[in-house]
Amino acid sequence: MYWNNPTIRVTYPLNSQSDPIKQSFHNGGHCIFYDPAVPKETIRYQQSLKDICDWANGHIETVGIDGFISNPGNHYDIANIVKLNMWIDDIRKQGIIKPMNIFYDGQEKYGINNGESRLRAVERISGLATMSAFICTRQEHADRFSHLEQVHDFEQFARLCQAVDGQKFLFTLTDSEAPYGIFWYEYDSKSTAPVTPSERFCVDTLYQYLQDHPDTKFTPEWFDDLKSWPEWR
User: Fold this and answer.
1) Are 65 and 214 in contact (CB under 8 A)?
2) Is 196 helix (H, G, I), strand (E, B) or coil?
3) Of 230, 221, 223, which is closest to residue 202 (Cα–Cα)?
4) What H or E segment, with its residue span, contains residue 61?
5) Is the pLDDT of residue 233 over 60?
């Protein structure tokens, strides 16, 4: 439901703009901490790489390639198939650039708002056991994270993202009753721009790939080798 909240757009450095990080605290109800090395097994997420493979294979078997691609309801996950193949290769080369946005709500494992696809990608990358992340939670849980760096404002948040002057950030916040203050954030990055194609590009590209390789069965291993996708920029 928080997707319906307004998107806050700011540029680093902040200058006269309102600080979205301070806004996310909701008058002291929420707080944020930064952990450069969250063990990936401590983060819960909904859909594994195998789940995506089973989903795609099932649809193709049922309605065929054309039916699978032509359904707009499939496009988000179809795009992720192409992006995940790109991201696995990219993470192997330069590591993970953007910190995840996770939350602590009293459960054993962290919940996740930004970065679930990165968790799927690292399923195929041996030796990558931790992820950098902003941990959003309620103030009553702050003592649990006292060993970590607490984030107090946007300038600090942006520096932890290794922001450069002129970099643009987007935020969607929650409300005072939520278990965390930031629902979603994003920022433009020259490092990740080459592997963030549009949904339309991904759908069209995968359609052509399946036309050329009609016997494709998606498996986690399928993602290991970067496919010869066309240039998208």
Assistant:
1) yes
2) coil
3) 230
4) helix 49-70
5) no
- 134 DSSP 8-state letter: E
Distance CA 2, CA 184 (A): 9
Q: What are phi and psi of 127, to 5 degrees?
A: 90, -10
What percent of the chain is modeled with pLDDT above 70? 99
pLDDT of residue 110: 98
Which residue, among 213, 220, 203, has the nearest Cα to 75 in the 3D structure? 203
Distance CA 19, CA 96 (A): 26
How far is residue 210's CA from residue 217's CA, in Å, rounded to a whole number?
10
Question: What's the N-to-C CA distance of the chain in angstroms?
Answer: 33
Question: Residue 134 forms beta bridges with which residues?
Answer: 34, 101
Section 162-170 average pLDDT? 96
Strands 111-114 and 100-103: antiparallel
Q: Identify whether the C-beta of residue 36 lies closer than 8 Å to the C-beta of residue 129.
A: no
Q: What tokens appear for 114 in the block? A: 């930004």
Phi, psi for 221 (deg, rounded to 5) = -70, -25
How far apart (Å, rounded) are the C-alpha atoms in residues 143 and 77? 38
For the chain, list the domains and their CATH numbers: 18-51+78-162+173-181 (3.90.1530.10)
Calculate the average pLDDT of the chain.
95
* Model confidence, pTM: 0.91
The residue whose two tokens read 């963030």 is 196
